[in-house]
TrEMBL record, chain A:
Superkingdom per UniProt: Bacteria
InterPro entries to which the protein is assigned, alphabetical: Phosphonate_metab_PhnG (IPR009609)
Pfam families: PhnG
Protein name: Alpha-D-ribose 1-methylphosphonate 5-triphosphate synthase subunit PhnG
GO biological process: organic phosphonate metabolic process; organic phosphonate transport
Source organism: Maritalea mobilis
Automatic annotation (TrEMBL), chain B:
Source taxon at top rank: Bacteria
Species in which this protein is naturally found: Maritalea mobilis
One of the GO biological process terms: organic phosphonate metabolic process
Record InterPro entries: PhnI
Protein name: Alpha-D-ribose 1-methylphosphonate 5-triphosphate synthase subunit PhnI
């Protein structure tokens, strides 16, 4: 169960940071085989982001983040997508992929698509962190 | 209270607004994109002060106001009210942040080491005037390391705690929905710590710098040293309807913890954080936090003083209201002056007669 949840989290998080154009195109392909999609929510809104301070450990609000959200019912599943920004189509595409993934519909194709997206994200993250590593400094006291 | 009715001003008011906007020209998606891409630190500053994170919307506000920061922040705070709050994310923890810059001025050998990250701290400040002469100015590329820096770093605070130099931070297990929220409840004094830190997170950068600087120069009770300064990206952790926690993407945050010399066996500390990468604001705000407890009433480092005076929308709004018609109140002052003058002159005239 925990493993299934962590795989689910991986799929949702990867799609939230993935390439929007590719995700929309992939969702379109899946939709061709999905008969009915009930849209419960597709909107922009705010997510309040709390943080814990390092001095007293107090949780406080840093501010609100604009997100796009989609909640659908398809293939007998509750498909859900949320990502930072205002792209409602991208959120809807994530929700469609999520519903299909939960239903086991085209599971191997979806897993392969998500893995490719995750690889691209990881490569970009790695490149950025290699640049950061180049700024590591060792201080000496004389 | 009295009002002056004005007639005939509608046209002038409309033309005034048109003149402001005409001088800015057409706002295009390309212009907004250019603001976002070429001025990320300005966009960060506006998002922090607006307490609303979205680079596109912040860049639009800057383009629409011609970079008039108070107006841009006001526009964003107003627009924010049109959006529903969907949820409250899971609180950010130090060891989950993706750290791009992390330095300590107090301790050179912090666990995880020091990463300068993107910074102009040690750069010559030279204006690239060749651009004005028609040449491009292309920066030298970074010579990236073979190995990537670890994405996560432990907090210096946790290390200090393990050394017994500071008190352990208590774990605040307040449910996210129950965390005090200034956007839904008033700021009362003495303020809850959650209110103080939220207010500083959305404070005007120039305001906190001015008051924080006064403390640094000696008008406060404690001189700060940066224990840890971080620029990071953090995940927005939300819940799927079925209960799965997942990241809906990342946003940029900055934070600073400052310390002062120990008065007893423990170091005194101050903390601040904000949206975007804005280290001057965080160091200044953390300095105010460091100085706040036990501060003299009405001093710049007293909580009520700095929280009220660094709220950018209220302070700029109050400032600009002074240019709006005050004819009646001012007229009453003039009437009182003239009346006093007339009364003073009457006995003199009677005496002369």
């Amino acid at each position: 169960m925990a493993d299934q949840q962590s795989r689910h989290a991986f799929v949702l998080a990867t799609l939230a940071r993935g390439n929007d154009a590719e995700i929309k195109q992939f969702a379109e392909q899946l939709l061709a085989d999905i008969d009915e999609v009930e849209v419960i929510k597709n909107r922009t809104g705010l997510v309040m982001l709390p943080m814990r301070d390092t001095v007293e450990g107090t949780a406080f609000h840093l501010g609100e983040v604009l997100v796009a959200e989609a909640h659908i019912r398809a293939l007998g599943q509750e498909g859900y997508g949320m990502k930072t920004g205002r792209d409602l189509e991208a959120a809807m595409a994530i929700a469609v992929i999520d519903a299909a993934w939960q239903a086991g519909h085209e599971l191997s194709t979806i897993d392969a698509f998500v893995a490719a997206q995750a690889d691209a994200i990881a490569a970009n993250d790695n490149e950025r962190m290699r640049a950061v590593e180049a700024t590591r400094v060792n201080m000496e006291t004389f | 209270m009295a009002y002056v009715a004005t007639r005939g001003g509608e046209r002038a008011i409309e033309q005034s607004e048109r003149l402001f906007k005409q001088e800015l020209g057409t706002i295009t998606p390309e212009k907004v994109k250019q603001v976002r891409e070429t001025m990320p630190y300005l966009v960060d500053r506006v998002m922090g002060e607006a307490s609303l994170y979205d680079q596109d919307v912040a860049a639009l506000a800057l383009a629409q106001t011609g970079g008039e920061l108070s107006e841009a922040v006001l526009l964003l705070r107003a627009w924010r009210t049109t959006q529903p709050r969907i949820t409250v994310a899971k609180p950010l923890e130090q060891d989950k942040q993706h750290v791009f810059r992390r330095i300590s001025a107090a301790f050179k050998d912090i666990p995880g080491g020091q990463l300068l990250g993107p910074s102009l701290d040690y750069a010559h400040r030279l204006l690239a005037t060749e651009v004005l002469a028609g040449e491009d100015h292309t920066p030298k590329p970074v010579e990236a390391a073979e190995k990537a820096a670890p994405s996560h770093q432990p907090s210096v605070s946790a290390w200090l705690s393990s050394q017994g130099l500071v008190d352990d931070a208590e774990h605040d297990d307040t449910a996210p929905d129950d965390i005090p929220d200034l956007t839904r409840e008033p700021l009362l004094f003495p303020a809850k710590r959650a209110h103080r830190l939220q207010s500083l997170a959305r404070a005007d950068s120039g305001g906190v710098l001015a008051l924080g600087y006064s403390a640094m120069r000696g008008y406060g009770q404690a001189h700060p040293t940066v224990s840890e300064l971080r620029l990071a990206e953090v995940d927005i952790e939300v819940q799927h309807p079925c209960g799965t926690s997942f990241s809906a993407g990342r946003v940029k945050v900055s934070q600073a913890e400052v310390i002062s010399k120990a008065k007893g066996e423990r170091l005194d500390r101050g903390f601040a954080a904000t949206f975007g990468w804005n280290e001057v604001k965080c160091i200044s705000a953390a300095t105010l936090d460091l100085n706040a407890d036990g501060a003299e009433k009405n001093s710049a480092v007293e909580e009520e003083f700095f929280l009220y005076h660094t709220e950018g929308v209220e302070s700029s709004g109050f400032c600009i209201h002074f240019k709006l018609p005050h004819y009646v109140t001012f007229q009453s002052s003039l009437d009182a002056m003239r009346d006093a003058k007339a009364k003073k002159q009457t006995p003199q005239m009677e005496a002369a007669e």
